[in-house]
Write a structure and sequence with these properties.
It is a single chain. By secondary structure, this protein is an alpha+beta fold. The protein is 19% helix and 34% strand. The chain has helices spanning 4-17, 59-65, 88-98, 172-179; strands at residues 40-46, 51-57, 102-110, 115-127, 130-141, 153-163, 191-193, 196-200, 205-209. A 6-stranded antiparallel β-sheet has the order 2-1-5-4-3-6, with helices on both faces. A 3-stranded antiparallel β-sheet has the order 7-8-9, with no helix packed on it. The longest helix is centred in the first third of the chain and has 14 residues, at 4-17. It is globular and about 45 Å long. Residues 168-189, 191-195 and 199-211 have low confidence and may be disordered.
Length: 211
């Protein structure tokens, strides 16, 4: 992720979800991300019907396309016949069905063939217990073009794509094993650093690798 909006929104989403795959839609507090709202949006998705509608969209995002995006189909922002790699539905399906985030580089094109580099971030949300019903996202320009508000972007094209690594919590069996370890007879209780158990000793520090 290169754009500050993408990084900050991902950090906020990551903090909310904790050890879950995705946070609840109701946990999103607009006031906590007010500086990101102009480029942010929320999608309502239904993978079974291949549907993804824009529920909310920021002001700058709407200005880029010269129209209110709420209620429109998200995939309609792309060209009519994208190549398989650039198919926007593949982005939606990956996020909704695999419960992972994706970041993509897009190019927006105006009626005068002016181009604008954009960064797209899509993150899964739970909604009323369902993991495939909502997506939190941002679409941010790398610069503010002088034609913003005068000539809208007619279509976008995908130029790069990366799937963000999912959350991999420590297995419960491993946690139970570590917590059940007896305290050393002459040492203070070990301190855990990632996969290491660190015991303070008289002459130095002994590292026990916990695998």
């Amino acid at each position: 992720m290169k754009h500050p909006t993408s990084r900050q929104l991902h950090a906020y989403w990551d903090r909310l979800r904790g050890e879950r795959a995705a946070p609840e839609r109701g946990e999103i507090e607009p006031g906590e991300i007010r500086n990101l709202l102009a480029d942010s949006f929320i999608l309502e998705t239904d993978p079974a019907r291949r549907m993804s509608a824009v529920r909310l969209a920021g002001t700058r995002l709407c200005a880029l396309f010269g129209r209110e995006l709420r209620g429109s189909a998200f995939v309609d922002l792309w060209a009519e016949r994208p190549q398989p790699f650039t198919d926007p539905w593949q982005l939606i399906e990956t996020v909704a069905c695999d419960t992972v985030g994706v970041v993509a580089g897009l190019t927006g094109v105006t009626v005068r063939d002016e181009t604008l580099d954009l960064e797209l971030l899509l993150l899964p949300l739970r909604h009323r217990g369902k993991t495939q019903a909502r997506i939190l996202g941002s679409l941010s320009p790398h610069c503010i073009p002088p034609w913003l508000g005068n000539r809208p972007i007619l279509r976008v094209e995908t130029v790069s794509l990366r799937v963000l690594e999912g959350f991999a919590p420590e297995p419960a069996a491993m946690r139970s094993f570590v917590e059940a370890l007896p305290e050393p007879a002459n040492d203070a209780r070990p301190v855990r650093f990632g996969h290491l158990l660190v015991h303070e000793g008289g002459r130095g520090i002994r590292h026990h690798i916990d695998r």
